[in-house]
Design a protein that fits this description.
membrane; single chain; rod-shaped; 2 helices; five-stranded antiparallel beta sheet; MT1774/Rv1733c-like; alpha+beta
């Protein structure tokens, strides 16, 4: 195990006669990259989250429930236990009239064995197309937070990767300088004076 001294805060910015210009540049690159990474991640996350939440709120306002009727008897048999939460749901054809008066039809999930003509609630958008039930406010908040968090992390990876590339370039340059200095002073080590 290597022996290390006490941990020194902000060691990259302390005065040191052995510190080269490349070390100072790297210190500022690291600080800038971390600040940019946090800023970009938070900004992207908040922007995407707000956009998703606004879109879901718009859906809650624009999407409307309509009463549809089953066009045919739903396949399967009705649950004998009477427990609706555990009953089997199947797809069946339903018909309804859109807000503009045009007849519409589509597949809906209903209890197995439901009779033809049974009323079913369907949700439609402004154009009368069938959509899913809109999410509640709390569901929208959770969904927006998760999507915003993922977007923020993905956006933060860009400056982090760019900073890593800059640091790799600085390291390569520093090694080239070491090679140049070593080739100049290395041969002198084997000489004796006298």
């Amino acid at each position: 195990m290597a022996l290390r001294g006490p941990k020194v805060w902000l060691w990259r910015w302390r005065r040191n006669p052995l510190k080269r210009r490349a070390d100072r540049v790297e210190a500022w690159v690291v600080l800038g990259v971390w600040m940019l990474t946090v800023f970009v991640g938070v900004l992207a996350g908040l922007t995407v989250s707000r956009s998703v939440e606004d879109g879901l709120a718009r859906e809650r306002v624009e999407w409307r429930p309509l009463v549809a009727r089953l066009a045919e008897r739903a396949p399967g048999t009705a649950s004998e236990s009477g427990d609706v939460s555990r009953a089997e749901h199947v797809w069946a054809e339903a018909r309804w009239t859109a807000a503009d008066g045009s007849p519409q039809s589509g597949q809906v999930r209903v209890l197995a064995g439901s009779q033809a003509g049974s009323p079913i609630t369907v949700w439609t958008d402004r154009e009368g197309r069938q959509v899913t039930r809109p999410v509640t406010e709390s569901q929208a908040r959770v969904r927006a937070s998760l999507i915003g968090g993922v977007a923020g992390v993905c956006a933060a990876l860009a400056p982090l990767a760019a900073g890593r590339a800059v640091r790799r370039r600085l390291e390569r340059r520093r090694m080239d300088q070491w090679d140049t200095e070593w080739s100049r002073f290395g041969p002198m080590w084997g000489r004796t004076t006298g």
